[in-house]
Amino acid sequence: MRMKKLLACGLALVTAAFFAGCGSSNGSSGASDAGKGIKVGVSMPTKSLQRWNQDGANMEKKLREKGYDVDLQFAENKVETQVSQIENMITKGCKVVVVGSIDGSALSSVLNEAKDAGVAVIAYDRLIMNTDAVNYYATFDNYLVGKIQGQYIADKLGLAEGKGPFNLEISTGPMDDNNVNFFFGGAMDVLKPYIEKGQLVVRSGQMTREQCATPNWDEAKAQERMDNILTTYYTGANVDAVLCSNDSVSLGVQSALKSAGYNTASKKMPVITGQDANLPNVKAIIAGEQSMSVFKDTRALADEVVKMVEAVLNKQEPEVNNTKDYDNGVKIVPSYLLEPKFVDASNYKALLIDSGYYTEAELQK
Would 126 be classed as within a structural domain? Predict the structure, then answer.
């Protein structure tokens, strides 16, 4: 009887081990085994902006949790560095490369190398142009980002109720970032009718994407341009709103405005938009120096990209929700778009603190 019990226990253990092994091989066991031994490259533009640090860290963390060997690199806004880093990722045997491009039109050659080597390419938040080597694209709905910014300005100024005229200036991003087409387009689709009606007046006359561009999203360049606009066109008038496409541009604009006497009892700050909900900008929102920022939860974006990576490596089709809008000049890139939300003084606690994106202590430093 004792022998039968021992045999039964032994058989149970063998059976359990067998099914555990099966679970591991089909990916239904612990996530840490899913990508064991597989290399994934992550190429981010720069460490100089908070959001790219967060994006890179989120991506690396989530991929490592799945067991992947992650090569995370930052190119410090130098295209040649990014090209070299991607070449190294290919040489080191990465099976998938996730690329947040510096210049979306400058990576065709190196990504063709990736394609020839059988390496899948996922464009991260910025569409990579002029190559069929891009397999998928993951981003936020960038047209909606612009619409949210434009609508926020319209709502705060009461434009739908016929109020105005108000003075508006525009400060957007670099010409080599394809996302700016969507940010700028979405915002102007909201604001242009009010400009045509005379409720919004752009005293500088600078309303094209080229005229409003900020190279590399550089804060200092945004400040310099706004300094020039204020001294040239606003010696006897006030700015009522500034459409800023992202948070670094917004900080530059805020510095220029403060230097010109804004943010005082006699001269309040205009309505100022932003994007990314960076820590300094959220502090500026709390202080009343910036009106809003479009919050793009990079944790959610990292989750979607990890799902894409896993699907590609399992030779499956990743989930996408847009197959018509993101034309890179060679192909329509299948894309997954996440929904952004605006954050301002009324909701930052719910969106940023309660969700664990920031802590109270971080916002008080």
Answer: yes
Which residues fall within 8 angstroms of residue 50, CB to CB, at 6 or more apart?
276, 278, 279, 280
The CATH number that applies at residue 181 is 3.40.50.2300
Q: Please compute Rg for the chain using Cα positions.
A: 24
Alpha-carbon span 220 to 227, nearest angstrom: 10
| Rounded distance between C-alpha atoms, residue 156 and residue 232, angstroms | 26
Pairing of strands 96-99, 120-124: parallel
Closest alpha carbon to 183 in 45, 175, 329:
175
* Residues 108 and 203 placed together within one structural domain of the fold: no
Whether residue 260 sits in one domain with residue 160: yes
Q: How many C-beta neighbours within 10 Å does residue 343 have?
A: 22
Please say whether the dihedral angle defined by the alpha carbons of residues 5, 22, 320 and 70, taken in this order, is positive or negative.
positive
Q: Give me the residues paired with residue 71 across strands.
A: 41
What stretches in the chain show pLDDT beneath 50? 1-31
Burial class (CB in 10 A: 0-12, 13-18, 19+), 269: buried
pLDDT of residue 49: 83
Cα end-to-end distance, the chain, whole Å = 70
Q: How many domains does the chain have?
A: 2
Domain that holds residue 261: 142-296
The residue count of the chain comes to 365
Q: Is residue 218 part of a domain?
A: yes
Q: How far apart, in whole angstroms, are the C-alpha atoms of residue 151 and residue 194?
A: 11
**Whether 148 and 244 share a structural domain:** yes
Statement to judge: residues 196 and 334 lie in one domain: no
pTM here is 0.83
Residues 184 and 276 in one domain: yes
User: Residue 19 and residue 325: Cα distance in Å, rounded?
Assistant: 45
Listed residues 296, 320, 350: the one ending a domain: 296
Q: Phi then psi for 350, rounded to 5 degrees?
A: -65, -45
